[in-house]
Amino acid sequence: MNMMIASGDLGDLVCSGKFTRLCDNNICYTLDELAEKYQTSLDIHSVMRFVNTADDGKLYTLMAGYSPDSVMEEWEKSVYEQAGVAIRTDIYEELGSPELKNLDDFTNLLQQVKDNYPDIVPFAYNYSFTNDYIKIMTGATVNEDGFVDVDGKAVPFIMDPNLADYYKIMNDWYRKGFMTDENFAWTGTEDEELMLSGKLFAHSCNANTADMDNAKLEQAGLDFRCKTIIDMTTTQPGAHWISTNVGWRGLFIPKSCSDPERVLAFVKWIWSEEGQRLLLWGEEGKDWEWSEDKSYPIMNYNFESPDSAAGMKYWGWMYHDGKNNVLPGVGNEGDTYKARVALKEICEVNPVLGMLRMGADSNEQVIMDNLKDLYMNESTNIITAPSEEECSKRYQNMLQTARDMGADQLTEWANQKYVEKKSEYDKIKNNKE
Q1: Which of 47, 58, 187, 362 keeps 20 to 30 A from 295, CA to CA?
Q2: What is the pLDDT of residues 322-370, one digit of tens each?
Q3: 323 vs 67, 100, 328, 348, 425, CA distance in Å?
Q4: Is 186 helix (H, G, I), strand (E, B) or coil?
Q5: Per the confidence metrics, is the pTM higher than 0.70?
Q6: At what angle do helices 388-405 and 163-175 cross, to 10 degrees?
Q7: Separation of alpha carbons 208 and 241, rounded Å
Q8: Which residues have CB under 8 Å from 357's CB, separation 6+?
Q9: What distance in Å separates the CA atoms of residue 160 and residue 162, rounded to the nearest whole number?
Q10: Can you spell out the DSSP letters for 28-93?
Q11: What pLDDT, on the 0 to 100 scale, is given for residue 331?
């Protein structure tokens, strides 16, 4: 991408998460200038415009995966994508299907698995999702970048005080032998592969993990299935998470575009309800039908695990608004939607934190990148400490190193923006259009 930017040739349309890099009027067109030039309206929700506006005050794209509160409320069955833990139902039932209301209950279950099934790894977490569900259960941030709100102040994610409880629990599990050392060296879907081999009881990944697992277990001819832990989400004391999401990638129209008018019309269609539904859901009447009250689609295929061999594949990840990508789950009989409903109940939405974007080559971005590296490197060291005392010591050492790297400086920078943007957002957050 950097080479393409340097060459000045980005083609006709760019799909990228590099917001700060591409929101540059020397590189890409602004939407408003194109709309004015080609005499077309954009019809963008005021909150969508606010959260997608670049630091230069201009609008270059709409980032995928975000909808304002009023839209989520209008489509009341919409939920948020987030993490989850899948467990094997056969082993769970053999152990008496114990109640799982909190992390203590889950810890006891993992101990039972270790005691009764010595060839089974009790717990693993996915490389990409980095154990977000357990973090949520302790009230810790799931972010590995950006900022969190601590007592009304925006601080770098690594300084979230709730991470102390998360590390304490994970260290306890590690010392009890619930996890393997290999887990910390994984770089892909090794947890899924371990489950499919029959050697894993529980793995932390996404809320749709059990449904995804079951499709693959059935295809592989295996005789066990998985279920998602749901009840614990709303009954674990202190369980909480803040959605700082303002979208994760966008469609940008570069200055090298050969036909900006046509491309603008195309992206407007993709952003429309019609475009999203066709790209995400397929053809109405063939791939899906509306529910009786038209509040969600009833799919004619497994949306969570589409059969690409049969031609079923959604392409809407190029853009979706955070609701159309989850509404198909309402009609599923699996765990995914129920898990996401529970996660929505303990969610607080604060997109302003996600708007604290640092310049691509700025000193602030350098500090944040260093903090991300520190977090990734030290998390394993903290979790694998030989004692609870050493775990706490290593955690405190990480915090001190973060401060030495400029965490306090980053906090000062963030709050200059956070206070102002939060005030602006609070004035419009309930806007209907």
Answers
A1: 47
A2: 899 889 888 876 788 899 999 999 999 999 999 999 988 899 999 999 9
A3: 7, 29, 9, 16, 21
A4: coil
A5: yes
A6: 140
A7: 18
A8: 19, 20, 55
A9: 6
A10: B--HHHHHHHTT------HHHHHHHB-TTS-B----TT---HHHHHHSTT-----EEEEEEHHHHH
A11: 82
Q: Which two tokens stand for residue 413?
A: 């920078």
Query: In percent, how much of the chain has pLDDT > 90?
Result: 79
Residue 291 per-residue DSSP state: -
Q: 362 by DSSP, 3-state: which?
A: coil
Residue 315's pLDDT band, with cuts at 50, 70 and 90, is low
Q: Using 50, 70 and 90 to split pLDDT, how confident is the model at 100?
A: very high
What number of other Cβ atoms are within 10 A of residue 24's Cβ? 16
Structure tokens at 1: 């991408």
Buried b (16+ CB within 10 A) or exposed e, 387-415: eeeebbebbeebbeebeebbbeebbebbb
Percent of the chain predicted with pLDDT > 70: 97
Residue recorded with tokens 């706490």: 392
Dig out the tokens for 134 from the structure: 């357990």
First to last CA, the chain: 34
Residue 127's Cβ-count burial label (10 Å; 0-12, 13-18, 19+) is: middle
Using left for φ > 0, alpha for ψ between -120 and 50, and beta otherwise, residue 210 falls in: alpha
pLDDT band at 166 (very low <50, low <70, confident <90, very high): very high
Provide CB contacts within 8 A for 146, sequence distance 6+. 156, 157, 244, 353, 354, 356, 368
In the chain, the amino acid numbered 423 is S
Nearest to 183 by CA among 392, 387, 379: 379
The answer to whether residues 159 and 150 touch, using CB atoms and an 8 Å cutoff, is yes
The phi-psi region of residue 152 (left if phi > 0; otherwise alpha if psi is between -120 and 50; otherwise beta) is left
